[in-house]
Design goal:
Helix content: 40-55%
Strand order of the largest sheet: 1-2-5-4-3
Strand content: 5-15%
CATH topology of the largest domain: Beta Polymerase, domain 2
Largest sheet: 5 strands, mixed
Shape: globular
Radius of gyration: 20 Å
Number of helices: 14
Number of strands: 7
Order of helices and strands: HEHEHEHEEHEEHHHHHHHHH
Structural class: alpha+beta
CATH class of the largest domain: Alpha Beta
CATH architecture of the largest domain: 2-Layer Sandwich
């Protein structure tokens, strides 16, 4: 009889870092393991282990890296329609017996510059940290500030943890050199405008270019942050991005999701006609409650 060894979350995260680094180095692919325990080691947030490992890959080799992870036993997490329509920047992977996900990014939301330009700017400043006895490439402290700020902003309206982490971050002391570097990096990555409510609180003085301030991407970012990045807002985004032919399907799925999508999104659903119907009807209440913030976010930034 084969014994099964269960990994603790912290063990899985550290080993996952080493795994990613090994695959990347074997294929000569540049990757940065973002967020995660590196943020604690940089002194940017309290120590904790999340349920996934986030990897930013040089955009031109994103597909190649994803294929490499599949070849080593990781499989794509089942997706639902709304994720397929609105999550365009990452692929999520699982592995049997592994307690955390692997989230592979081709770009990171909130950086408005060209993804290759952003990656190169972050890579130029990267450092290495040991995980599971292997040196892994991670963003440096200043890059970590921008990444954590963007990540926390997206959920700070609706999630206390993100709001608390953002509040903790703005009180992190930065040297004069770090403040200057943060301003330069924000300009290089197109995040001076998206972080306009954060960087000044950290003593970072930077003026976003006019083109960035007038961009559609900034408007959509502001919408997402104001909406709390949840609920009805993403259905509005999916509808807006869809072709006229697909829009009726988007509306119907928002009202009455397929069995496949329902059971993935709400795994606690009892898989019977009555159970699925009750779960679908329960969604209406949650959707209606999120409508005001979604509409307010969209109308506020409409132009």
């Amino acid at each position: 009889m084969t014994e099964t060894t269960l990994l603790r979350m912290d063990e899985a995260v550290d080993l996952g870092h080493a795994w990613v680094q090994t695959i990347a180095e074997e294929r000569g692919i540049r990757t940065l393991i973002i967020k995660g325990p590196a943020l604690h080691r940089h002194g940017l947030r309290n120590k904790r282990y999340s349920g996934d490992i986030d990897v930013l890959v040089e955009p031109a080799r994103f597909v190649e890296f994803c294929d490499a992870m599949r070849a080593t036993g990781w499989r794509d997490r089942d997706t639902i329609l709304i994720s397929e329509r609105t999550t365009l920047h990452s692929k999520n992977f699982l592995r049997d017996g592994w307690p955390c996900d692997l989230d592979v990014h081709s770009f990171f939301p909130g950086f408005l510059a060209d993804p290759t330009t952003v990656f190169d700017a972050l890579w130029e400043r990267h450092v290495t940290m040991p995980f599971a006895h292997r040196d892994c490439a991670v963003p440096d402290r200043v890059s970590g500030v921008l990444i954590l700020a963007l990540h926390s902003l997206r959920g700070s309206v609706t999630q206390a943890r993100h709001a608390n982490e953002l509040e903790q971050l703005v009180h992190v002391p930065l040297t004069a050199e770090e403040k200057s570097d943060a301003a330069a990096l924000a300009l290089a990555t197109g995040s001076a405008a998206t972080l306009e409510t954060v960087l000044p609180r950290m003593g970072v003085e930077v003026q976003a270019p006019a083109a960035e301030l007038e961009s559609r991407e900034l408007r959509e970012w502001r919408e997402r942050v104001a909406s709390g990045s949840h609920g009805a807002y993403f259905w509005f985004v999916a509808f807006r991005r869809a072709s006229w032919r697909d829009r009726p399907m988007i509306v119907w799925q928002a009202f009455w999701p397929s069995r496949h999508d329902l059971l993935i999104a709400r795994p606690e659903t009892v898989d019977t006609l009555r159970g699925r119907t009750r779960a679908r009807v329960a969604r209406w209440g949650r959707g209606i409650r999120s409508l005001p913030s979604a509409l307010r976010a969209i109308l506020t930034h409409l132009r």
